[in-house]
Automatic annotation (TrEMBL):
Domain named PpiC: residues: 2-84
UniProt keyword annotation of Protein transport present: no
Gene3D superfamilies per UniProt: 3.10.50.40
Stated name of the protein: peptidylprolyl isomerase
Record bears the keyword Isomerase: yes
InterPro entries reported in the protein's UniProt record: PPIase_dom_sf, PPIase_PpiC, PrsA_foldase
Organism in which the protein naturally occurs: Siminovitchia thermophila
EC number from the UniProt entry: 5.2.1.8
This protein's UniProt keywords: Isomerase, Rotamase, Signal
Catalysed reactions, semicolon-separated: [protein]-peptidylproline (omega=180) = [protein]-peptidylproline (omega=0)
PROSITE patterns documented for this protein: PPIC_PPIASE_2 (PS50198)
Pfam family, one: Rotamase_3
Length: 86
């Protein structure tokens, strides 16, 4: 099990926006550009969604689970209404 994780999220307010972003990404748009345009997380949106490494247990369990399932590939998953959609 990993003890440190790095996961660039794009947080949005609703599932509809998340699905639109995923469709745009699947058509070839760069993740960093989408994060800058759409992410509601002001702490990392300007950096293209980049986050520092975080330790297991530091984030919402639902977010960590989604991140651990991705294995290097972008993943769409609604995580939590309070945290946004990833």
């Amino acid at each position: 099990m990993k003890t440190e994780i790095q996961a660039p999220p794009i947080l949005v307010k609703n599932e509809k926006t998340a699905k639109e972003i995923k469709q745009t990404f699947d058509k070839g748009e760069k993740f960093e550009a989408l994060a800058k345009q759409y992410s509601t997380d002001t702490s990392n949106a300007k950096a293209g969604g980049k986050l520092e490494y975080f330790t297991v247990g530091a984030m919402l369990p639902e977010f960590e689970e989604a991140v651990c399932q991705q294995e290097g590939e972008p993943v769409y998953r609604q995580v939590d209404e309070k945290a946004g959609d990833v």
